[in-house]
Design goal:
The chain has helices spanning 39-44, 52-76, 82-99, 101-111, 117-134; strands spanning 9-11, 18-20. The protein is mainly alpha-helical and 137 residues long. The chain has 2 domains: 7-44, no CATH class; 52-134. A hairpin with a 6-residue loop joins β1 (9-11) and β2. It is elongated. The protein starts with 8 loop residues before the first strand and ends with a helix.
């Protein structure tokens, strides 16, 4: 006779076995339980199914390269005050370089400073804002 599931149990989406609601992986078939509320799952995925851990490097590379190229363009073709263009361009170049994962990894290895994702985003936004604000009009 089949066992009935209790209030803290669900059926595995893969094999149909009764498992605990909090189970991250089904002990019967080994498939990840989609209803899991473990910290690793909720921190890496948003409500629309985008995996932040996978998207972050793509955003970092894309944004970093755009900021870097903007800085180079600001220096190469200055509009107005040349000193402001150079300072703005160098600020944007450094900000764009800092956005790139290999550069951040090198900085981390050289300085032993561990930066979380939020800190990196704040540094990049501030650097971009300063670079664009300094740029000659």
């Amino acid at each position: 006779m089949a066992r009935k599931k209790s209030a803290d149990e669900v059926f595995c989406e893969s094999c149909g076995e009764i498992i605990k609601k909090q189970a991250e992986i089904c002990p019967n078939c080994g498939v990840r339980n989609g209803r899991s509320t473990s910290p690793s799952r909720t921190n890496s995925s948003s409500s629309n199914g985008v995996d932040i851990d996978q998207a972050a490097p793509v955003v970092a590379w894309g944004g970093g390269l755009i900021i870097l190229l903007t800085g180079i363009g600001t220096i190469v073709e200055p509009e107005g005050h040349i000193v402001r263009a150079v300072i703005s361009g160098l600020t944007l170049i450094l900000t764009g370089m800092f956005s790139l994962p290999p550069v951040r990894d090198t900085v981390k290895q050289q300085t032993d400073i561990q930066l979380d994702r939020t800190t990196v985003v704040i540094i990049v936004f501030v650097g971009f804002f300063v670079g664009v604000t300094i740029a000659p009009l």
